[in-house]
Amino acid sequence: MCLVEVEKSPKPVASCAMPALPGMKIKTNTPIAKKAREGVMEFLLMNHPLDCPICDQGGECDLQDQSMAFGADRGRFTDMKRSVVDKNLGPLVKTVMTRCIQCTRCVRFASEVAGVQDLGMLGRGSGEEIGTYVGKLMTSELSGNVIDICPVGALTSKPFAFKARNWEMKGTETIDVTDAVGSNIRVDSRGPEVMRIVPRLNEDINEEWISDKTRFCYDGLKRQRLNDPMIRGPDGRFKAVTWRDAIAVVAEVLNQVKPEEITGVAGKLSDAESMMALKDFINKMGSDKVLCEGNGPNPPADIRSNYLMNTSIAGLEKADVFLLVGTQPRVEAAMVNARIQKTVRATQAKVGYIGPPADFNYDTWHLGTGPDTLVEIAEGRHPFCSILKSAKNPVIIAGAGLFEREDQGAVFSTIETVAKKFNVTRPDWNGLNVLLLHAAQAAALDLGLVANPTESVKSAKFLYLMGADDVNLDNLPADAFVVYQGHHGDKAVYRANVILPSSAFSEKEGTYENTEGCTQWTIPAVPTVGDARDDWKIVRALSEVAGAPLPYDSVAAVRSRISMVAPNLVRVDEREPSVISAEVKPPVKQQVSPAPFKAAVENFYMTDAITRASKIMAQCSATLLKK
Amino acid sequence: MAFTMRAVKVPPNSASMAEARHRVFDFFRDACRAIPSIMEIYNLDDVVTPAQLRASISQQIRKNQGVSDPKVIDMLLFNGMEELNNITEHAKQRHHIIGQYVVGHKGLVQDLEKDQGSSEFLKKFYTSNY
Ligand code: SF4
Ligand code: FES
What we know:
The complex is a heterodimer of chains A (627) and B (130).
Chain A: E1 3-6, E2 13-14, E3 26-27, H1 31-46, H2 62-70, E4 93-95, H3 105-114, E5 119-122, E6 129-132, H4 145-149, E7 155-157, E8 170-175, E9 184-190, E10 193-199, H5 212-216, E11 230-232, E12 238-240, H6 243-256, E13 262-266, H7 272-284, E14 290-292, E15 321-325, H8 329-332, H9 334-347, E16 350-354, E17 365-368, H10 371-378, H11 384-390, E18 394-399, H12 408-421, E19 425-426, E20 429-430, E21 432-435, H13 441-447, H14 453-458, E22 462-466, E23 481-486, E24 498-501, E25 510-513, E26 518-522, H15 535-545, H16 555-565, E27 574-575, H17 609-612, H18 615-624
Parallel strand pairs in A: 13-14, 13-22, 15-16, 15-18, 16-17, 18-21, 22-23, 23-24
Antiparallel strand pairs in A: 1-2, 1-3, 4-7, 5-6, 8-9, 9-10, 11-12, 11-24, 19-20, 25-26, 26-27
Chain B: H1 2-7, H2 17-41, H3 50-62, H4 70-88, H5 94-102, H6 120-127
The structure holds iron/sulfur cluster and FE2/S2 (inorganic) cluster.
Residues 100-106, 130, 150-152, 154-155 of chain A line the site of iron/sulfur cluster.
């Protein structure tokens, strides 16, 4: 398509490969150039099926656009077209390999960005095919991106196959909440239904990729949804009731328990608005037991730099040595892992890893499995120390899974010793990072939802679960009254006495802070399901009926309340770096326990209520996680 | 509704309050006499009793008990007769009758009365998310 005519040149020249010289006369729109382009187009279409009407790429197909712009208006081709056997790339990517034009973008993506050598070119000449060499599946957590980069309909989305055309969908630019990265996405919806999720460019966070969990979790938004307020009757079954009744029941119970028996738990998908409302409400009722799941017994909430990714995600590219402590970024935050793999690929950065055996798509040095290795490094006894010492911009990434450990204070102070010793934190470079696990975590720590989960749950007579499914309810007193506010009938619903349905991230306006401290908003793409309400509104309504009304009636008012507590949460699309360094911390007297680090995420594909409800994610876990 | 117009003659204005009052009672009697046939044509036996309908009619009339101008009373009576005519001529459907006279105007939103004293926010919250 880049052919142009150059005066005094016998043939049209490819402009992309020809340096422009002084005095050159270039014509871009002459019959010769056009004819030459038509010829190229004919070659491209020689082996390409003319099945655009039944092709999922139709309407957003690069080849279609090119042939509309440059192609001839009639075909001269009468021979047989070649056909290629379709490959099975797993439950996510559908292949129609006859349509492939051998651009090898997918191969490059797989080896350069995803870091897996799964795709390749087989055969030569007209026998050339794209495939996974020995009939393997494509096992990458980023495999969905080949759908976007394939210019034609050779690689398309399997769950989305034949569901919708791209021109009948409405795109809403929002963010993802399935992990703590906050990838920028576009939610394509038709009417009230989310049809697909595609990435949006944000160089600082996810570049132009998203993980498979982000891309394919959307069918979970249609399953297992709670759509009516429900009360559990004496027979143990749920009965749908009106909001008025449900809230009245909750308020009545609330006014019967003692203030210190009230506990509120925010879930991993909660937005800042609802967490603010929950915290204000529980505090107004006289209790300070508000927490966010995943933050552990004693979260380091006082200093922001203690729980954020201080280098920023894009800043990881400057690093030359990584030390991963108890974190498996590949499953915890696939986009952060893609950054590390990009850096490793570009600069041969060294990666040391302490934790249980894990899967990496770049070379790592597995230093050990527990805190003792960390202590060895801190004391300078480990061979990895020499690498750390020679590093210019060393980076330590500690997993948020460590928050759950009893000795987290000691572990983190050991990490700080390592950081100080090897110049990881200096005035011009703060390489001490924490990689969070959940979308709600950073905002929860900013807002101060920091109660101890074990104790709060043990003493609770009234437990308010705001989308929290992964809190341990074993110690909950049997007579405790549990309110579950959430969008999915997930784990915690089994114990709930009252269900209050709320809206999911695709249906509400919410503030989320990602692991590097960047505040972003979700934008509602589709209407709420059934009789559900936004999370903060439910808390606000309940507070009024319970006799302790919260002083805000609109999102704007909630946000101005948030700005009093954590002003960074209202500065959207900005990364607020933390200013105070960790120096001011009191000394830790705890001892590190020898227990090895545990994996924080067991199943990459199913980590929260939405992904657990998704059928596609279930298929992925069944086929792709098979050992 | 041409046929209604034909059926309802506009009577001359009431000369005095007493005459207007008399006409109201006449109208009430007419309406009560129509109840059995209304019950029948609209198939209301399983939702309401004649007594309830009577009470409903008197309630409608009492709603205007403060009116003291005979001309206004004449106008209201005319409206009432027109309505009665429409009903007896089956110009309405069953759900109209049930909605207006059986369940009452506030029928389906009766719950709202419980929200008296609660804030605008809460009232909106109970109706919808938006
Ligand atoms: S990206 Fe698509 S067209 Fe290009 S080689 Fe891969 S499958 Fe073929
Ligand atoms: S529409 Fe172009 S390959 Fe299908």
